[in-house]
Amino acid sequence: MHKRTQHKWLWLFAMCGVIVCPFPSWGSGLQAQESLLIGPGDLLHVQVLDTPDLEQHARVTDAGQLPLILGGNVKVEAFTPEEAARAIEKVLFDNHYLLHPRVLVTVEEYATQVVSVLGEVKAPGPHAIRTPRSVLDVLTLAGGLAEMADRKILIERHGTGEKVPYFVSNQAGVAIDTSVKVYPGDTIFVPKAAIVYLLGDVKLPGGYAMTNNESTVSVLELVARGGGTNHSAVPADAKLIRKVDSGYVQMALPLSAMQKGKRADLPLQAGDIVWVPFSYLRNFATQASGIVAAVGSAAVYHF
Predict the structure, then answer these.
(1) Which 8-state DSSP code applies to residue 235?
(2) Mean pLDDT, rounded, for 196-221
(3) What is the rounded CA–CA span in Å between residue 181 and residue 157?
(4) More confident call, 285 vs 21
(5) Which of 85, 183, 277, 278 has the fewest CB atoms within 10 Å, i.e. is most exposed?
């Protein structure tokens, strides 16, 4: 093979490593790695192999289209750069401009170069990122989770509105291994953790945020967090007050039997109230409405 021809073929094969090739076996591998989507206002760099006259830098219109030098407008919104390149190749081929178009599309500038972090973080608001970052990096930019943050957060993708859940484990290895990417324009929402209440004759009555790694708590765990019951308490007459669609319901809670291991511990739900009465209230019929009213003035602690 002539040396000049050989160099030309080597250059073409090298370019196919980065250019969108029409062969499914090559394109499918690239597509699996692409997840950043093009949006209105993004600045794209379009290169056409062997046709430098068609190279251009252009912004995506509000309608999500890219105006081409040849071929008019082509829809690229919500496409990966690879998918946009294929769409341009199809336009060039269908309009008989090129027999074998090879196109490379890169995003030079994103219209939205910030990610919004809302909710229970120490520095909520927009934070600048120019490239995809891990969700842990972005949470660090926002100062980290606040004390009352729920570990179950939600990421909304820019352009598609896709909702991506992510659990911020307090186990370093798990948090890193399961981390997901956040892209410019995305929004992260960190909700407030659910709260359960321990009221009555206990050491530290109040509300307790379910901020532990499992975001769960049982009756005995809650009582332990509250320092345990006082000597004057009557745990055998404890009550569980739970909110339902029709209001609040009051249930007997065998706390004493649980503490002695005679009854199984009970998992609590968000908003549950555990009431431990005083000894002199042994025969007093406690009303759920009165206990619920006390929740408003309860101190709130985090686990």
Answers:
(1) G
(2) 88
(3) 10
(4) 285
(5) 278
Q: Which of 41, 54, 47 is nearest to 19 (CA)?
A: 47
pLDDT tens by residue, 240-284: 999 888 888 999 999 999 999 999 999 999 999 999 998 755 445
**Which pLDDT score is estimated for 280?**
59
> In residues, how long is the chain?
303
Residue 172 phi/psi, 5-degree rounding, is: -55, -45
Nearest Cα neighbor of 112 from 185, 181, 45 is 185
* Whole-number Cα distances in Å, 179 to 41, 132, 167, 192, 259: 28, 12, 9, 21, 39
Looking at residue 41, its pLDDT comes to: 86
Are 272 and 197 contacting, i.e. CB atoms less than 8 angstroms apart?
A: yes
Domains 114-190 and 195-302 agree in fold: yes
The string of pLDDT tens digits covering residues 25-36 is 334 333 434 456
Domain ranges of the chain: 3-109, 114-190, 195-302
CB 185 within 8 A of CB 160: no
Q: In the predicted model, what is the mean pLDDT of residues 289-301?
A: 67
pLDDT at 296: 64
Nearest to 144 by CA among 208, 209, 190, 212: 190
Tell me which of 124 and 296 has the higher pLDDT. Answer: 124
Provide the 3-class DSSP secondary structure of residue 256: helix
CATH code given to domain 3-109:
3.30.1950.10
User: Can you identify the CATH homologous superfamily of domain 195-302?
Assistant: Outer membrane lipoprotein wza domain like (3.10.560.10)
Q: Which CATH homologous superfamily contains domain 114-190?
A: Outer membrane lipoprotein wza domain like (3.10.560.10)
